[in-house]
């Protein structure tokens, strides 16, 4: 059973470009969580999604950031018009439906660098 | 917000037990305590969780005080590979009456295991 997969592992963008980060949850998991980790800081919760639904987006910046988890395919975290302050590691986690939000399994992360 | 307080750093000698404390004085009666760790640049790894009783698994033991206001994670025989940031987290419900939960990470404790 493959773990949580994230791609790309490293992403470089210039200011103003768009960044798309993908997360494939573990098999059988229908809940996905995105976190951001700035250099030398802890993980900050961004958004919690279920298939085709946003459960909690209280940690998402109000502008430029969006997330989706379609019925088919991976979850996508999209950052429009990136700025240098978006440079961070973005981690995705997934959990099974019978025990929502508890034991989350994390992916290896995507390191975004904005030039 | 994390609702937990941990020391920023601790040291431990290889082969000795590492005892990591956590205060969660505002915890509610049905909120679980979770522990994760993050080895440098990797995704967080689940360690253990508990509600009232002490818990033990192959990785660690969790001791929760009777009033549930604090807990201690015990790594019985620390190795160099246990050097990581350890996060103590109180699981919170996302929506009132629902069964969706999220984890809010604080700054954690950097445990350094020395040879």
Low-pLDDT runs of chain B: none
Helix content of chain B: under 10%
Shape of chain A: globular
Number of helices of chain B: 0
The helical percent of chain A reads under 10%
Query: Which structural class is indicated by helix and strand composition of chain A?
Result: mainly beta
How does this model look, in words?
The complex is a heterodimer of chains A (115) and B (115). Chain A is an all-beta fold and 115 residues long. Chain A is built from no helices and eleven strands. Chain A has strands spanning 5-7, 10-13, 19-24, 31-37, 43-50, 53-56, 65-68, 75-79, 88-95, 105-106, 110-114. In chain A, the strands form two sheets. In chain A, strands 2, 4, 5, 6, 9, 10 and 11 form a seven-stranded mixed beta sheet that branches. In chain A, β4 and β5 form a beta hairpin. The mean pLDDT of chain A is 92. Chain B contains no helices and eleven strands. Chain B has strands at residues 9-13, 18-23, 33-38, 45-50, 55-56, 61-64, 70-75, 84-90, 92-93, 101-102, 109-114. In chain B, the strands form three sheets. Chain B has a five-stranded mixed beta sheet, with no helix packed on it. Chain B has a four-stranded antiparallel beta sheet with strand order 2-7-6-5, with no helix packed on it. Chain B starts with 8 loop residues before the first strand and ends with a strand. The mean pLDDT of chain B is 90.
Give me the secondary-structure topology:
The complex is a heterodimer of chains A (115) and B (115).
Chain A: E1 5-7, E2 10-13, E3 19-24, E4 31-37, E5 43-50, E6 53-56, E7 65-68, E8 75-79, E9 88-95, E10 105-106, E11 110-114
Parallel strand pairs in A: 2-11
Antiparallel strand pairs in A: 1-3, 3-8, 4-5, 4-9, 5-6, 7-8, 9-10, 9-11
Chain B: E1 9-13, E2 18-23, E3 33-38, E4 45-50, E5 55-56, E6 61-64, E7 70-75, E8 84-90, E9 92-93, E10 101-102, E11 109-114
């Amino acid at each position: 059973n493959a773990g949580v997969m994230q791609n790309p592992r490293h992403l470089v963008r210039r200011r103003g470009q768009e960044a798309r980060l993908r997360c494939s949850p573990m098999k059988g998991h229908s809940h996905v969580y995105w976190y951001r980790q700035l250099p030398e800081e802890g993980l900050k919760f961004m958004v919690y999604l279920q298939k085709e639904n946003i459960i909690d987006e209280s940690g998402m910046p109000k502008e430029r950031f969006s997330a989706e988890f379609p019925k088919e395919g991976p979850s996508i975290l999209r950052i429009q018009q990136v700025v240098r302050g978006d440079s961070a590691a973005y981690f995705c986690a997934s959990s099974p439906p019978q025990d929502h939000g508890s034991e989350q399994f994390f992916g290896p992360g995507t390191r975004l660098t904005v030039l | 917000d994390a609702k937990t307080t941990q020391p920023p750093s601790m040291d431990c000698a290889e082969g000795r037990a590492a005892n990591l404390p956590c205060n969660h004085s505002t915890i509610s009666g049905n909120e679980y305590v979770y522990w994760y760790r993050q080895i440098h640049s990797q995704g967080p790894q689940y360690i253990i969780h508990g509600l009232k009783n002490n818990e033990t698994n192959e990785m660690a033991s969790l001791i929760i005080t009777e009033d549930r206001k604090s807990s201690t994670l015990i790594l019985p025989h620390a190795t160099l590979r246990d050097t990581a940031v350890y996060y103590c987290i109180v699981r919170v419900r996302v929506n009132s009456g629902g069964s969706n939960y999220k984890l809010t990470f604080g700054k954690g404790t950097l445990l350094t295991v020395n040879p």
